[in-house]
Design goal:
single chain, 2 domains, 2 strands, 73% helix, elongated
Length: 141
């Protein structure tokens, strides 16, 4: 074991790590200083805070994807939402046009919302990943 490995081991031995970026965090901190992920014990156990923690992971994956694996995962997650919304719209639009019923029109709002959420999640994640890769190429030259 090298001297650097021994020093790193000493530093990290008692330190808590952020589950999102694996950086050492101060004991008792509620958020990671580097990535902002929630660190509280309650974020892992209480349902509401757990939802916020999971939401943070999705938000980070969409806003700052660093690998194509993240983008592929977003395509899988949001892709099924988008396809489900589009299939529902494919069924719903002809019914609304045929029956011209306000109640049918109102019932279709969730289908539209599903489609918008799915397509926008895919579009934002992919655009951010492409911009990130261009930035890396620009800095490398």
């Amino acid at each position: 074991m090298s001297k650097e490995d021994a020093e790193c081991r000493e530093i990290l031995e008692g330190a808590d790590l952020c589950l999102c970026c694996l950086e050492p965090v101060r004991p008792g901190a509620s958020r990671c200083v580097k990535c902002g992920a929630p660190l509280d014990f309650f974020a892992a156990t209480l349902p509401f805070l757990r939802v916020l923690a999971e939401g943070f992971v999705y938000h980070r994956a969409v806003q700052t994807p660093r690998s194509w694996w993240s983008v592929a995962g977003i395509w899988l997650i949001f892709g099924e939402t988008a396809v489900g919304g589009l299939l529902s719209l494919w069924w719903w639009v002809p019914m609304v046009l045929e029956f011209r019923n306000l109640e049918l029109l109102i019932r279709g709002i969730p289908f539209v919302a599903l489609t918008v959420v799915g397509v926008s999640g895919i579009a934002i994640s992919t655009a951010n990943y492409v911009a990130y890769r261009r930035c890396l190429r620009g800095n490398a030259s």
